[in-house]
Design a protein that fits this description.
The chain is α+β, with helices and mostly antiparallel strands. The protein contains 16 helices and 10 strands. The termini are far apart.
């Protein structure tokens, strides 16, 4: 389905869109409401809302996304019991570049909905705990309206918080364990070794996601290594062996490695795709539009790279305790993930080892391109002092260099050990603890 330019919503046109589709939207709001809130929703639904009610809708643009248009919508009391909802629209291009920039297909929004449905089916009763409520999906205009996660913040913000809150450390451990469990459950259930060839072929075809896969192949696995300057590469040993490892990861991501096991993957599971409520420990997965049937290590690597960079960032922010906390949480993510894989039937030592090596590789690739400054405006390693920024980037690239080729023998234990040594190097008197 093609989303023409005249279909693109704005702050001004969103209220009219809601009015046009209110019957379907209201049904979604009602269906997802808890029993405690049903009375208010039923009262609102008893009569058709007046047209003037839609004039009271307050819409603001959500900044920070690159690919889609996004809005926060505050509904008046007579509409949806005054809920706040989130609207996202997928254009035929990367939103940040505009219509004349990088072209895409808006069908990615359908795949996002499909991922949510697949994850919901697999997670069962846990789905509402970890996935946002979807109220409305418009396939013609590629618009989705879902729960606005009020009180939540992105996990990447937590990992680099300028003043870490020690009172939330326990919550962060709980969230880390939950993330490992969720992803492990989805991966084990859909792993190519655990399903029939027909199921594997169906997943492969349905989750090809060629357009967004090509975006990742270009921006994640190619540009950083071709275009980084010598100054940007300071600290990185870009040897032939290193580049061969990047080539392996690229082939695995593209589905070209016949030895690689594949799973239904979120596809862009960095900490900016995880929303957390630090008061309750609640965790939600969002934005799976890059979903593919791909290597299991991709999701874990995308997630763990944020913990690794968060640790280095905190070390160079003179917060060694927060740095160690991030490392400890990263270890909890991995432990929980591996436990979940085994609990859901993925017990082959060979396959588990393969996933571990993939995870380390994808973790390091994301650390590398971020440190090379090819990952957009992520919060990692952003310092006002250019000297500190340079040291943190060099430390990150040295960390990558020490682990990428050696990952096949050292595995994830090597990666965590080298990460801890990076913190000790920055704070010689500080001893990482578990």
């Amino acid at each position: 389905m093609t989303v023409a330019s005249e279909m693109i919503l704005t702050v001004e046109t969103v209220p009219h869109y809601l009015q046009e589709h209110w019957t379907e939207i209201e049904q979604g709001l009602f269906a997802s409401s808890s029993s405690a809130g049903n009375t208010a929703v039923r009262a609102a639904a008893a009569a058709a809302p007046a047209a003037s009610s839609f004039d009271q809708i307050h819409v603001t643009t959500i900044q920070g996304g690159n690919v889609n248009y996004a809005f926060c919508i505050h509904l008046p009391p007579e509409l949806g019991a005054g809920k706040t909802v989130f609207l996202k629209q997928a254009p035929e291009f990367v939103a940040i570049f505009g219509p004349d920039g990088f072209p895409l297909t808006s069908d990615r929004m359908q795949l996002e909905m499909d991922y949510y449905q697949e994850a919901k089916k697999i997670l069962g009763t846990e789905a509402t705990q970890y996935l946002p409520n979807i109220y409305h999906f418009d396939k013609k205009k590629m618009v989705v309206i879902m729960e606005f996660l009020d009180g939540y913040e992105m996990l990447d913000h937590v990992l680099v918080a300028a003043v870490p809150n020690p009172d939330t450390y326990g919550q962060e451990t709980v969230m880390a364990q939950a993330l490992g469990n969720i992803v492990g459950t989805i991966h084990a259930t859909t792993h190519s070794s655990q399903i029939t060839p027909a199921q594997r072929d169906a997943y492969t075809q349905h989750y090809t996601n060629r357009a967004l896969r090509d975006v990742q192949l270009e921006f994640v696995f190619t540009k950083a290594y071709q275009e980084a300057t010598e100054a940007q590469r300071t600290g990185l040993t870009m040897s032939a062996d290193f580049l061969a490892e990047i080539a392996v990861l690229k082939h695995q991501y593209n589905g070209d490695d016949p030895e690689c096991g594949y799973v239904v993957s979120h596809g862009d599971f960095h900490p900016g795709s995880v929303m957390v409520d630090m008061t309750t420990g609640s965790t939600k997965l969002i934005d799976p539009e890059f979903t593919i049937y791909g290597p299991a290590g991709l999701d874990m690597g995308s997630l763990l790279h944020g913990y690794c960079l968060g640790a280095i960032h905190q070390a160079y922010s003179n917060n060694p305790g927060a740095a160690t906390k991030n490392i400890n949480c990263a270890e909890k993510v991995w432990e929980s993930y591996k436990t979940s894989l085994i609990a859901h039937g993925l017990t082959s030592a060979q396959i588990l080892h393969q996933i571990e090596i993939e995870t380390v590789g994808f973790t390091l690739a994301e650390v590398c391109r971020t440190a090379l400054e090819f990952a957009g405006g992520r919060k990692w390693l952003q310092f006002d002092d250019p000297s500190i920024k340079s040291k943190a980037k060099i430390a990150s690239l040295q960390f990558v260099s020490k682990c990428m080729v050696q990952r096949h023998t050292g595995g994830i234990a090597l990666m965590f050990q080298q990460l801890k040594e990076s913190i000790v190097f920055c704070h010689p008197t500080f001893q990482p603890h578990h």
